[in-house]
Design goal:
This protein is mostly beta strands and 194 residues long. It is built from no helices and 14 strands.
């Protein structure tokens, strides 16, 4: 059995649309080549069965010491590890996909605070000053927005995760003397390993 990636409702065999929220269901997954030349075939896992892991292509650094944050369709946010495959609250398997790795760069005194993370307008937890977090997400396009109590102004980059680009790194920092938040792309070599 498969589930809607938008609302989590169970989908019937061969369903093209979710009967609960109306979201379009992706066609049967085809084999896709990753950047590393490996073949990745998304898996439709049922509750209780192990889900396929995130990031099928190898990345050049070991970032496993950094929490891997999942958000289940039930709303539960879990700072787990690379071996986490299902929601500890409801048991639904996490959808396979990629990772957005965020490093909250340090700022000068008075602005050395954490930030709230939003993906497509939905809260996705918090990140502390000079900290990193990895967000595990199904393949797709996402608007990344970050906030702080002093400002909601952010450049809101659009990030696409796909089998060709399964791992995206970015850095976040205050800009404009603390009146806005800037998120910029980064290379894996620029990201702290812990």
């Amino acid at each position: 059995m498969s589930f809607c990636i938008r609302c989590g409702a169970a989908l019937g065999p061969g369903a093209r649309f979710c009967t609960s929220c109306g979201a379009q269901v992706a066609a049967a997954p085809a084999q896709q080549a990753t950047a590393a030349g490996q073949v990745y075939v998304p898996e439709q896992a049922a509750i209780g069965q192990p889900a396929q892991s995130f990031v099928p292509a190898a990345i050049p650094y070991d970032f496993s010491a950094i929490p891997l944050r999942h958000k289940c369709v039930c709303g539960h946010i879990d700072d787990g590890s690379d071996s986490s495959v299902s929601c500890p609250k409801c048991g639904r398997p996490y959808q396979p996909g990629g990772i957005i790795h965020i490093y909250r760069m340090g700022n000068f005194a008075g602005m050395a605070v954490g930030m709230g993370i939003y993906i497509n307008g939905e809260p996705f937890g918090h990140i502390g000053n000079k900290k990193s977090v990895r967000l595990a997400l199904p393949y797709g396009q996402y608007v990344l927005h970050m906030t702080h109590t002093a400002t909601r102004d952010c450049n809101d980059p659009v990030i696409t995760l796909s089998p060709q680009t399964p791992y995206v790194c970015c850095k976040a920092s205050f800009t404009n003397a603390g009146f806005s938040i800037g998120i910029s792309p980064a290379q894996p070599s620029e990201m702290p390993l812990k």
